[in-house]
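for the writeup, i need someone to sanity check this before i put it in the appendix. the sequnce is what the collaborator sent (i think, or maybe the updated version? ugh). structure was predicted straight from it, no edits. if anything looks off just tell me and ill rerun, i have time this weekend
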Amino acid sequence: MSNPRLSIIPAGAVTDRSLDPRDLQTLCLLGRHIDRAGWCTRSQVRMAAELGCGRATLQRSLDRLYEAGWVEKRRRDFWRPEDSAPSSSYAYRVKLDRDDCDLKSLARDAEDDVEESHAENAEVPANGEGVPAGGQGCPPMGRGAHPSAGTGAHAYVGTNNDPLERPLKTIERDAGARARDRKERFKAEFRKRWPTAAVDDRNRTDYAADALTPDEEKAALEGIGPFLGELKRQGRKAVPAGWRYLEEKRWTLLKPSEGSAEGAVTSVAIEEGSEAGRAVAVLYAVAKARLFVHGGKVVYRGGITPQILAFAAVNDKASWRWINDRQQIAAWQTFLASHVFGVRTPLLEQRGNEIGLYAPGPWPPRKDGGWPESAAA
């Protein structure tokens, strides 16, 4: 076959126990795309596509190979100083076992039947585990390489033809990598579906996504369509930021489907001038949310409890307090997220150099309907 496709990698990396199978696969891919000088300048996006994994997974493998001393890297924006901010693009070169090989030592007389300099033919003393102490297959003295992990018996080979016993640390690391890959897939799918993803704060969206459980990730994606449909039904033209949808778990505020465990909670129509109607109106005013009123009746999807009725005795907004204590703000945010349904405007506002909110009291009402202080305002 002419022009065979080869991948050149250091032999010692094959038995380096500090590497994962994905790392060795990445090393082989680098060796397949090196240039005459040994450098691979292929983009990480294309390499990740070839391996069928995420870019973050490939980056972690490259980092482990670099820490173990099997590859070296250099900035592709070479005009910047080395001590400047981290580059967004690197080139990688596979480091072979010996790049200081004396070519003259390779010359032997034609009469020699055995090339003693070849590591495969050299006699190497073995250590207690049956692993040679040096020679071909021994990794270089990198930061993460294992000098004694050369060719020979694997330390985790079981008996009676048992399969290789993988260390617990490796299993846990693989589980963590799978979880990170799942999280990256969720983020990519969410950005694809959410209308404002292109202009949202990406870091805040990532933080909100990282806090979700696998079940919440699935529910968040399934709730995007119904949530956007609810906005359209209410005539709302503005779509909230994706991070707000994830942080506040807006999909949980949608009306439960029939037959669900939460199906008993339905919308109720309350007279606008009644005690319950006034209480719900004040509650929504604190949350800066739009109260749905139809035919002189307030439509509320929660239950009218003593905790909600406590807002009926609250004075007008002019007597409300400015809350800037972090614990009190967090208490109000949690309470409003549980009792106010629908789309809300940002709760916090800035007054001078302070950020806070206006509320009837420093703390939300208790479950028995009382306020933590004697007066509501």
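Residues 98-166, 257-265 have pLDDT under 50 and may be disordered. The chain has three domains: 1-97+132-158, 175-253, 268-359.
thx in advance!!
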